[in-house]
Amino acid sequence: MDSQDSGMSAPSRRARGRPRDWNDKTAQNTIKSLDRAMEVFEFLSENQGLSLTELASETGQSPATVYRVLVTLEGRGLAEFDPGDQSWHVGARAFVIGARFLRRTQLVDRARPILRRLMEATGETANLGIVQNRSVLFVSQVETHASIRAFFPPGTLSPLHASGIGKALLAEMAPERLEAILDGALEAFTAKTLSAPDELRADLGRIRERGYSFDDEEKNPGMRCIAAPVFDIHGEAVAGLSVSGPTARIGADDVERFAAPVIAAAAELTMAIGGTIRPRS
After folding, report:
1. 113-135: buried (b, 16+ CB within 10 Å) or exposed (e) per residue?
2. Which of 35, 59, 90 represents a domain boundary (last residue)?
3. Same domain? 51 vs 167
4. Using CA atoms, how far apart are residues 195 and 182, in angstroms rounded to an integer?
5. How buried is residue 163: exposed, middle or buried, by Cβ count under 10 Å (0-12/13-18/19+)?
6. Are residues 79 and 191 in the same domain?
7. pLDDT tens digits for 137-193?
8. Is the dihedral of CA 216, 190, 163, 82 positive or negative?
9. Contacts of 187-190 spanning 24+ positions with Cβ under 8 A
10. Do the Cβ atoms of 198 and 192 come closer than 8 Å?
């Protein structure tokens, strides 16, 4: 006899792995100490190389609390202490955990053969990066065989405004998100860094029109980079592909020649992850 025949309603089935109060996000269902620890960890990921005193001051927590958090993170490999200058940094384990997320998205796995072909086609180092706050996080790289090369190992962070991939992603950002980044200080790393917001906006407009960005020694003297965005199923830029190398091999007259295979590789990765290429403005 089923529940309908008996006049009894069947109990609602709870999704496996979810507690009864899954949708209740009030304070009673958060672990305050863990929340504070994550606040310290997230701040550390954005501001590495600070002392205990500085971290405590910036996060608004007591030095004793922050110290316990850091030691706990250090024990898990998520934080590292430099005794030389008494500073704290994100640990290697953080990248391992992040890499597992990237494997879930299949972005890195799908990109590897494309990066290899891009390196072979251009003779320069091919890179894959994603946005992390105000920086590009490099998540994969295929190095050139040349003795002089660009080197951005996975886990390297570079400011968005002074990176080929960063500018390619900034050019595709929603206006409100872009302005939030431009409202902050834009550090000048070289004489060519676009640290003035209006100057950077003008460059981003050109990037949207042509479909690729050009980093002309804006972060590292003697190095150039050409990049293009990768889009997801919603047409949003979720990553960028680039080739980077010394000015001796990537001359000012070579940019368009390098741009063509970079754009093609970015389009190939977009299709590989089921994405939709956004029409150029």
Report:
1. ebbebbbebbebbbbbbbbeebb
2. 90
3. no
4. 9
5. buried
6. no
7. 999 999 988 777 677 778 889 999 999 999 999 999 999 999 999 887 899 999 999
8. positive
9. 187/159, 187/162, 189/159, 189/162, 189/218, 189/219, 189/220, 190/217, 190/218, 190/219, 190/220, 190/221
10. no
CB 151 within 8 A of CB 167: no
Calpha distance 203→190 (Å, rounded): 17
Q: Which of 90, 123, 139 is the last residue of a domain?
A: 90
- Residue 144's alpha-carbon distances to 151, 176, 242, 258, in angstroms, are 10, 38, 13, 14
In order of 2, 4, 16, the CA distances from 9 in angstroms are 9, 7, 21
| Prediction pTM value | 0.66
Length of the chain: 281
Domain-located, residue 64 = yes
Domain count, the chain: 2
Digit-coded pLDDT (tens) for 213-272: 999 999 999 999 999 999 998 899 999 999 999 999 999 888 999 999 999 999 999 999
Burial zone of 162 (CB within 10 Å; 0-12 exposed, 13-18 middle, 19+ buried)? buried
- Per-residue HEC secondary structure of 197-239 comes to HHHHHHHHHHHHHHCCEEEECCCCCCEEEEEEEEECCCCCEEE
Structural domain of 76: 27-90
Which helix (H) or strand (E) is 244 found in, with range? Answer: strand 237-246
| Both structure tokens of 229 | 């965005």
CA distance 106 to 127: 16
